[in-house]
Write a structure and sequence with these properties.
The protein is an alpha/beta fold. It is built from eleven helices and 14 strands. The strands form three sheets. It has a six-stranded mixed β-sheet with strand order 2-1-3-5-6-4, sandwiched between helices. Strands 9-8-7-10-13-14 form a six-stranded parallel β-sheet, sandwiched between helices. A two-stranded antiparallel ribbon has the order 11-12.
Amino acid sequence: MKNINRFITNKINIKKNLNYSLIIGLTPSKGARSPTLWNKVYKKNKSRIRMYPADVEKKKLKNFIEFLKKDALFLGGSITAPYKVDMIKFCDTINPDAKKIGSINTIVKRNQKLVGYNTDYFGALSTLKKIKYKKKILIFGCGGASKAVILAIVKYFKNSNLTLYNRNKKKLSNFLKKISFTKKFSIINNLSSINKKKYDLIVNTTSIGFDSWVGSQKFENLKYFSPFSKLSSIKKINFKVGSNFVKLNKDLITHDTKKVDLFFSKNKKIDVFDIIYNPKKTKLLKYAKKYRNKIYNGLEMNLIQAVKAFMIVNNIKNFNSIKKKMI
């Protein structure tokens, strides 16, 4: 479909006159799992519908969404980084739960109008239910997926004390007020104060640790870091060469390694949940494992949110059947 390729930086080939779904983000073609998961179900259901990744630059996002609203063959799909918050303004209706969270990861088209949902909450909850009660929890981030994870933690660990850190403190404070936060919590002003307390569970909801090159002319990759470091001084490179990036940022990477190692040396028997699924073991999880802590990555969360999203977009009710087919 040539028209759709006007808006995206990757190229996709949608068969003529067939319905389709998309995962929309900056670079979902570089590692998003949803097309693989959704297409497994489509094939097993003997459907000709397929999901495709759509890499969209922010400057083209609005026009792209307007195009999709008018395309009778577009069913809906998933929204991934960094557009989970931005997409709200392009939707005609937002599901009440998604509105409370303040971000969406699923859209469905009904009568040329888009309805936004958030299924990250269900995905996060599925992993949290595997973790025994924790009294003191440290949470990093308040971005698109983060808000759903925070809400899941608030509802599941009802009597826990939460400590939260986000680069934008005001954004975090506003969100906590929005969800009627009534439990005991504290907001960390800077990363240097993290080691002043001990924790039972740490949850990373940021993209720090994700293995993907980010940038259009100069590039960076966050897989070499943990959320314990402020990364505003990262030096970007002209070409996507890992060894060159590591060499240029050697001091920053070394400093980060010392910080994450120090944290786990002081926090024994702490569970770690990192919502990142690529790689399966981020730098954070590797050091947690080094100190023999229980670790949980984002694979289960990603699977469950994909099941829920597939059900919404394709109007299918049987959760267990869809999950089984995706697995």
